[in-house]
Known about the structure:
Blueprint: H1 5-54, H2 56-68, H3 74-91, H4 95-106, H5 126-131, H6 140-157, H7 162-171, H8 173-180, H9 188-203
Helix pairs in contact: 2-3, 3-6, 4-9, 6-7, 7-8, 7-9
Amino acid sequence: MKINKKLIFISLLLLLNSCAVRVSYDENKSILNKSEISESNKKNNDRDDFKSFANPINNNFKKFVLKRNPRLDEKIADDIIKYVLIYSDENKISPKLVLAVMAAESSFRADVVSSSGAIGLGQLLKSTAKDMGVENPFDIEGNVKATTKFLAKLLKSWDGNIDYSLASYKMGFTGAKKAINSWDGLPESTRKYISDIKKLHDSISDNE
Length: 208
């Protein structure tokens, strides 16, 4: 029996082309799946972001903010809460503590300036805001970012001691440290400041 070499050659070519088509298809399918997965993950992340800001506990934050400042526009209240949630998570501190400090300092007035030149929601000096990487402390997001970062820095300096951190927020780190180490301790005005903020913190409900 004679073997038809030409027929065998053609058969091999057809077989190789078939394999190439399957490989090409599989590669395209793989790329498509990665794209679909990426888009799916994006949608899931978007949903998670929405859930994080629509969490029922955040309604209590809004109630707290508007109770402290009933004239505040609700959209501004929402923005304040959103940025507090973002930057408190970023700096690993309680959003309730940040809100309590802002309530005591400014009653959530972003444009208020004290006689000493402290500005906005967290009543920050321009120099303090700049040290925290914020150029415009009148900006709501910028002020929340700087306030939260500054509180986190103080908490770290005092190994998580809230009383000493709040005293430093009011008096400055050096002034608070000197008072804490003195015979008389912290002045009465600072003790009241700490007590007031703790009461504000505890007044924010953890339940709907």
